[in-house]
Amino acid sequence: MAVTMNDVARAAGVSLKTVSNVLNDYEFIRPATKQKVLDAIAELGYEANLTARSLRSGKTRMLGLVLSDLAAPYYAELASKLMKAASARGYRVLVEQSAARKDNELSALKGTFRQLTDGLLFTPLALNADDIAANSGRKPVVMLGEHIDDPRFDLVTMKNTEAASAVTAHLLSSGRRRVVILGAAHGDVGGSNGLRLTGYRGALAAAEADYDPALVVPCEWRRDAGAAAVGNLLDSDVKFDAIFGLNDAVALGALHELIIRGVKVPQDVALAGFDDIEEARFASPSLTTVAPGMDEIAERSVGLLIDRIEGAETSESAIHIEAGFELKVRESAPGKS
Amino acid sequence: MAVTMNDVARAAGVSLKTVSNVLNDYEFIRPATKQKVLDAIAELGYEANLTARSLRSGKTRMLGLVLSDLAAPYYAELASKLMKAASARGYRVLVEQSAARKDNELSALKGTFRQLTDGLLFTPLALNADDIAANSGRKPVVMLGEHIDDPRFDLVTMKNTEAASAVTAHLLSSGRRRVVILGAAHGDVGGSNGLRLTGYRGALAAAEADYDPALVVPCEWRRDAGAAAVGNLLDSDVKFDAIFGLNDAVALGALHELIIRGVKVPQDVALAGFDDIEEARFASPSLTTVAPGMDEIAERSVGLLIDRIEGAETSESAIHIEAGFELKVRESAPGKS
DNA sequence: CTGAAAGCGCTTACAG
DNA sequence: CTGAAAGCGCTTACAG
After folding, report:
1. B282 lies in a domain?
2. How close, in Å, is residue B146 to chain A by CA atoms?
3. In which region does residue A276 sit, left (phi positive, over 0), alpha (psi from -120 to 50) or beta (all else)?
4. Going by C-beta distance under 8 Å and a sequence separation of 6 or more, which residues neighbour residue B262?
C-alpha cells in the first residue's frame, strides 16, 4: 500500500542498501547517486516505516514519562515542557499515569511500556529504590523529582531543601512566628516532603523560631486536601499566622478555605506555596511561591536521558542534577513593609 | 536477548503457529496444548514484542491525541481522562502538541505521527474542514471540540450554544443587563467562539436585552489574555455589570484583573466561565461556570474511535455526539438573591 | 562507494 | 486442531 524503500530503490535505479545509506546519512556516497535517491523519495512521497525501523534497530525514538496524574497542574506543565524538549531532539514522549500506585509504577517500569520506549523519565511515588533497582532493566532510566535520591540512579531534581528554607525564611522575615507547614508529617525525612520539611526547620532555627510539631500538618498535595486540612486547623485551637503549602495546589486549596472562613490573606495569615504553576500568578491574592526551575529540569532530564540512550553520556556513576530556584514574592506573602 | 515466541514453541514442544494461536485466543485448540504453551510462557517470562506485532499486523494499539497545549488546564484534564478511557480498552495515547499552528496540525495529520497510531483524536484549531479532508488519510479520525462541524467527520463535542445560552441566561436572571462576552469577536459564526456567541445572543434575545457589539471582546483563551482584555475594558468607557469568559482560563484571568482594580465580584461585576476545570471550584470567589460533560466526551470519543479502528462501528455517514452539560452556580455569579 | 542476503519477531494464508 | 513457510519494511554485516 504505502511506498517502501524497495519502490524508491527501483525508481532511482539503485539497490536497497544505497537508499538506506542516503536515509542514514552515510558519508561515502556519490553526490549524483544521492541526488537520484532524493529525487525518487520526493517524487514517490516516501516516508520511512517507523515500526519496521524499530523492529530492526531496537530503537523507537520514544521516551516514556511516568507520573501520577497528568491533570495535576505541575505535571501538566512539566509534561508539556518535556515533550517540547524531546521533540527538539527528535524524540516523542509517551505518558503513563500511575495514580501513585505501586502496581502501576511497577508495570510501567517492567512491562510492555518499556518496549515502546528507549528510556524512561520516572517519577516514583510508591516504589522505593530497591524495587526500582530490581526492575529497571537495561534501558536507561532518569529519575525525576526527589523521592529517590540513590547513587544507583540518574536524577534530575530541584533544590528542595534550600528552596523550602528560602520560602520559610521569607515568611519569618515579615515577622510571622507560627508557620504551618502543610503537606508533611513530623518526622518525614526522605522525599519532597522530608526534604522540604528539613528546609523549613533549618529556616526556623536560623531565625531562632521554635519548631512546633503541631504546625506540621500532613495532607495530600491536592487543592481539596489543602482546603480540608486548613479547615480542620481553623476548627482546632492551634494558632498560626502563616502557612507554607508544600506545593501550589495545596496552598491554593488552603487559600480558598481561608477566604471562605473570613481569614484575611496576608493580613491575618500569610501564605506561600511551591512550584510556581501558572495558576499561582492569577490567584487572588496572587500566591507567593518558589519557581523550581522547571524549564531547566525539563531540558536537562531529557538531555541526560537521550545522552544515555545514544551513548553520549557514559559515566559509570549516577549523575545528579539540581536545577536552580527562584522565590516569587506576591500578594499572599509580601515582604516586610 | 529477550525471549521470543520461538523459544516458547520449543519449550512447549509445539510449533510457532500454536503459540500464536494461544496468544490470540484462537478457539479450536486442545486444552492440554494450550496449557503446555501457557506454562512455557509463564516459565520463560515471555512477553510479546509489540513492535514486531505492529509491523506484521499494521496496528499499534495507540491512539493519537492532537491538541494545542497540554499545559492548558482543560486539555490537561481531558488528556488524563482520555488516557484512562483508552487504557480501559487496551490502548495507549500518544499526545502531540500543535500550539494551534497550521503546520503542526498538518504534520500531525499526515506525518509519521499517523504511522504510530491506529486513529486520531483531533482538536483542530488552525486547519479548516477541507484541509483536513484532503490530508486525513485512511485511518479513522474523530474530531474533538467544535471547530469543525462537518458531515465528513466523526465529531464528539459539547452543547456549546445551549450551554453558553444557559450561562448568559443565568447572568441575566440576576438582573445584569450589560454582559461582556470575553473571547469572541462580533460576527464570529463557527468554532467554539461562534457557537457560544450564538448562545449568548439567543439568551439576550430571550430576555429582551440588547445585543451591543461593544461588549463582544475578542481575546485568546488564556489567563493572561483575559486579564489584559478586562484591563483594557476598564480603561475604556464601556460600562458592564457582568462578564462571560468563554473558557475558565479567560474568566480566571479576568477575575484576577477585576480584583486588582478593586472591582467587587460579584457585587459590581458578576462573572462566569466555561469548562469547570478544577481550578474554578477553588478560585476566590469560586467561579460560576458550565461543566461540559468532560467524562462523557472522553468516554465516547475514545469509544467511537476504537470502534472505528476495530470495525465495530461501520456507519457510512459521520457520527456526531454531543455531551450533556451542567451549569455550576458558584460565588462569582450567584443566583438572584 | 554499492549490491545481494539475512534477519528483527511476529501474523497469516495455506496445507494437512 | 496443528505445522512449515512467507513476508511486514527496515538495517546491517558481508562481499566486491
Report:
1. yes
2. 22
3. left
4. none
Question: Which residue, among B140, B150, B189, has the nearest Cα to B308 in the 3D structure?
Answer: B140
Cell numbers that stand for A298 in this block: 525539563
Q: Measure Cα distances from B170 to A104, A275, B158, B273 in Å.
A: 44, 36, 19, 12
Interatomic CA distance for residues B39 and B32, integer angstroms? 11
Residues of chain A found within 8 Å of residue B286, distances taken between Cβ atoms: 256
Classify strands A179-182 and A216-217 as parallel, antiparallel or unpaired: parallel
Same domain, A185 and A300: no
**Are residues A53 and A151 both part of a single domain?**
no
Nearest CA to A114 among A133, A130, A136?
A136
Residue nearest to nucleotide C8 (CA to C1'): A56
Write A5-9 long-range contacts (CB < 8 A, 24+).
A5/A46, A5/A48, A7/A44, A7/A46, A8/A37, A8/A40, A8/A41, A8/A44, A8/A46
Q: Give the Cα separation of A145 and A128 in Å (integer).
A: 13
Closest in A84, A93, A95 to B83, CB measured:
A95
| CB of A22 nearer than 7 A to strand D | no
Q: What is the reported pTM? A: 0.94
**Closest residue in B to A64 (Cα–Cα):** B94
Per-residue pLDDT tens over the stretch B55-72? 999 999 999 999 999 999
C-alpha cell at B229: 482584555
**Cβ distance of B83 and A93 shorter than 8 Å:** no
Is the CB of B109 inside 8 Å of chain A's CB atoms? no
Q: How far apart are CA B127 and CA B110, in angstroms?
A: 13
Q: How far apart are alpha carbons B35 and B32 in whole angstroms? A: 5
Domain endpoint, select from A16, A31, A57? A57
Kindly report, residue by residue over A209-256, the tens digit of the pLDDT: 999 999 999 999 999 999 999 999 999 999 999 999 999 999 999 999
Check if residue A35 sits with its Cβ under 7 angstroms from strand C.
no
Please answer yes or no on whether B255 and A83 come within 8 Å at the CB atom.
Answer: no
User: What's the alpha-carbon Rg for chain A, to the nearest Å?
Assistant: 25
Taken in order A212, A213, A219, A225, the sign of the CA dihedral is negative
Measured in angstroms, the CA of A311 and the nearest CA of chain B are apart by: 19
**Whole-number Å distance between alpha carbons of A66 and A77:** 14
Same domain, B154 and B164: no
pLDDT in tens, B27-36: 777 888 888 8
pLDDT means per 10 residues in chain B (337 residues)? 84 86 80 86 91 92 97 96 97 97 94 94 92 91 83 93 97 96 94 94 96 96 97 96 97 97 97 97 96 96 96 90 96 86
Host domain of residue A205: 160-291
The DSSP bridge partners found for residue A244 are A181, A272
Look at residue A154 and give its three-state secondary structure.
Answer: strand
With an 8 Å Cβ cutoff, is A80 touching chain B?
A: yes
Which residues from B are below 8 Å from A69, CB to CB? 80
CATH number at residue A91: 3.40.50.2300
